[in-house]
Structure formats: C-alpha cells, structure tokens
Amino acid sequence: MYDFLLIASCLVFAATCLAYSRHQAASLLHPATIYLAFHGFIFVIRPLFARFYDFDLVYRVYDFQPSMSDKITVILGANLAMLVFTFVSVRVASQRVAPIPRDEFDRYRGILAGPIMLAAIILGPLAIAAQIANWARRVDPYQTMSRDAATGILVNIESNGWFSDSALMLAPLAVLAVWLFRYRFPGWMVFGAASILMLGSGGRGSFIFAAAAVTFIYMLERHRTWFDGRIMLLAAVSLVSFNAVVEDRGAAVRGLLGAGSDDTYTSSYELDPLEHMDFANLEYFEFVVYAVPQRTGSWDYFAHNLQIFTEPVPRALWKDKPIGSPVQFFQLWDYGTPIGMTISLPGAGWMSFGYLGIVIQAAAFALLYGLLYTRLLVNRPGAVASLIYALGIATSVTVLRDGILLTLLRQLPFYLGPLILALAFARFGAEPRRAHIRATMPEQPADTPAARRKALAARAPQ
User: What is the pLDDT of residues 231-269, one digit of tens each?
Assistant: First the structure.
C-alpha cells in the first residue's frame, strides 16, 4: 500500500507541475514554483530514497517508530498541502510579472549607491561581530546557550538573541553589493567574503537566502522567466557549498581561517544518500503524526503562533519569559527526543488541527506570498519593488521548511532591514536637496487666471 502511495504521489506531483506550467504566471519567481520545488524534493524524491535505503537515522535519534498508518498520513497530508498552496497562490498571483525597463534599475543604482554604502558602514560591523560570535558558539554551543529539558529549545543564558540574529544581515548586504556592482566581479567578491562568514558558523539558511535573492533580482532585472547559464552556475556553486557545510557544520571553513574546529553529529560515510537531518522533514512530519493527537490527546490549535508576541522581548529584560509559546497544549519532548526538528508547513498544519489545519496553514502562507507577488511585481512594479520582492520571497526557502509564522517574522527585520535603512537614507537625504533647489530657483509668478490674463495683456500689441 505504501509503495503504491509513493508512486501515486509522484504522478500527482507531475500532473500538478504540468498544469501549473501552462499557467500564464508560471515562472521561477512565482511562490508556487518555490513550493513545488520544496515539495518535490522533500516529499516526492526523498521518500523514494528513504524507502529504497530504509532510512532510520531520525528514528534512532528521536527514539520513535511510525506506524504504516502514520507514514500514509504524512504522504497524504504533504500532497494536500501542495495542492492547496499551488491553487491558492496561483489564484492570488495570477498575472505575469510586469517588465521593468533596464534603465530604471540603473537610475536607482545611482540614487541608492550612497545610502546602501552608508547602511553597510553602520550595519556591516555589527553583522560581522555577531557572525564571529556565532562561530565561537558553534565550537562550544553551551557557552552561552542552554537546552530546556522540557521543550528541547536552546535558550540564551548570556548573549542577546537580537545580537546573535543580526548576523543574518550579512546576507542582504551581500545581495545589495552584487546588485549595486551590476553582477560583476567586485560584487561577487563581497558576496564570497560574506558567504565564508555565513558558512563558517555552520548555518546554511542565510547563505541559501542570499543565493536565492540574488537569483530573483537578477531575473527581474534581466527579464528572465526560468533558468539561464548564470543562474545554473550559481545554483551549482550553492549546492556544493551547502553539501560541504552539511558534512562538518562549517568546521573546515573555521579551521581554514584559524578559528578552531569541532566534532560533528555524524559523518557522511555513516549515512545513505540524502539521509542526513537537513532534509529529514519527512521523518519530522512522521514524528508529529506519531505524537499528535494519538499520544498528546490534543491538537495545538495554532497556539504556537502566540510566540510571535513574546519572542521580540529579550530574556534579559523578562526573566520569567516563557520558553516557546506562552500557551502550550503539550510538549513533544514527552514522546521522544526531537532535537533540531523543523516540522515543515504541512507538519505545522497537522499539529494545529489535522487535515483542516494543513488546509488553513497552506492557504495562509500561499495568500501571504501570493499577495507579496501581486502587490510588488504586478500592481506596483519598479526597481525598488523588485528588490523588496527578491528579499521577501527568498525567506520562503526556510519558512516552508520550518512551517511556522515565527520563522518569517524573526527573519524579516534582518533580511529587509538593510534595504529599508538605505531607502530611509535616500528619502531623508533627498528632501534637503529638493528644498535647496527650490530656494535657489528664481521666484515664478503665480499660475492663476488673473496672472495669465495680465501676461497676455502685456504681450498684446499696443
């Protein structure tokens, strides 16, 4: 039965991709494309590898074993999420991307060059300092972090979460540098240096975000719809870099720069292809179905989203700040050891309210990213709108993996912050220049009917 379901899942995915490809809005820039790529790899291709190689890493680490019913529920739930997300996003974002003249991008490069550099001067040192601190934390993760025994959540005990996450700003600063230098060598030098800093901490999310954002802004400026040679090259380099960091969590990068090394949780020779935990959303979803509501006796009812209200407050200012959501109906750690779990969009939906929760979760995120596409690329196209969209849609790479609103809201201040700051500098810097121009211009006569009659009378022959 499960083998038949895996084959049926492949056919459903192929049919959905074929139907979507015929839609006028279909392109690499569309939210539906990103979700189909995510679903196809995690819930279509990888389950075939899991079945063939009999993956068991996550089952051993998490100390659980899903039933055949659980595994079937996961495949059905994942396909339901795919269908809902694709349908809703295509309905909301149903138009083609409005083409933008190339000279508009060049004009805004001139306008934003100074503000972007000023933003980099202000934010760059902070981001670099935070990233170096994250390197040290990777070498000794328990120097400033402590894992809560009840929830399994790592909690800052000495450092500040806002400072740690400010390292994410390296990614948009690198993207803006590549765009500012017109995708030429100086911009890629900045991108490469930032990538080394990002990958050295063992984190892959910010690096993948930067690669995706550069791809999207390049496509918008060059009027591309799908892949070309440069995009394929960037994708290949990103994949190689990602896999290298997966192997040792950035230890080789840190060792190369003399920052120390550390042991990793596994070695490549111990695992079958694609078995490592970075791509294990299938097993994570199975753990959620295994626990909720069979063993928890309750759904989450979307209560995990309440953490967005407590997360911004530093623990140093709120000693009794709740760990996780302030309202919790169960603790998944009571039913296993789900360390490092990212439950994905369908997993978060199931945890919230079963199949109905999957429909709500998928529709909500499809609506969110679909509106972003429509408002910025269709209704108000422009160079600045394209930059904002490229940075905004690139967040979906990790948001779909985590499946929760908190991931998006936690990233946005850092991924969009440098551009917003640069736009603010450009805005406030332009106002004094306009005032100076108006003050130095000769006074013009009032354009009123009486003034026009007086001017005509003065020009009339006597």
Answer: 777 777 766 666 656 555 555 555 665 555 554 444 445
Q: Look at residue 263 in the predicted model and tell me its pLDDT.
A: 47
Mean pLDDT of 122-132: 92
What would the 3-class secondary structure string for the chain be?
Answer: CHHHHHHHHHHHHHHHHHHHHCCCCCCCCCHHHHHHHHHHHHHHHHHHHHHHHCCCHHHHHHCCCCCHHHHHHHHHHHHHHHHHHHHHHHHHCCCCCCCCCHHHHHHHHHHHHHHHHHHHHHHHHHHHHHHHHHHHHHHCCCCCEEECCCCCCEEECCCCHHHHHHHHHHHHHHHHHHHHCCCCHHHHHHHHHHHHHHHHCCCCHHHHHHHHHHHHHHHHHHCCCCCCHHHHHHHHHHHHHHHHHHHHCCHHHHHHCCCCCCCCCCCHHHCCCCCCHHHCHHHHHHHHHHHCCCCCCCCCCCHHHHHHHHCCCCCCCCCCCCCCCCCCCCCHHHCCCCCCCCCHHHHHHHHHHHHHHHHHHHHHHHHHHHHHHHHHHHHCCCHHHHHHHHHHHHCHHHHHHHCCHHHHHHHHHHHHHHHHHHHHHHHHHHHHHHHHHHHHCCCCCCCCHHHHHHHHHHHCCC
Of the candidates 324, 331, 334, 337, which has an alpha carbon nearest to the alpha carbon of residue 351?
A: 331
pLDDT of 350 > 80? The answer is: yes
Task: Of 400, 378, 399, 398, give the one whose Cα is nearest residue 389.
Answer: 378
What residues have CB less than 8 Å from 393, skipping those under 6 apart? 29, 31, 34, 212, 216, 369, 372, 373
Judge contact between 89 and 35, C-beta under 8 A: yes
Query: Prior bond to 293 cis, omega within 30?
Result: yes
pLDDT digits (tens, 9 = 90+) for 393-442: 999 989 999 999 999 999 999 999 999 999 999 988 755 555 444 555 45
Beta bridge partners of 155: 146
Q: Mean pLDDT score of the chain, rounded to an integer?
A: 85
Q: What is the pLDDT of residue 457?
A: 58
pLDDT score, position 233: 77
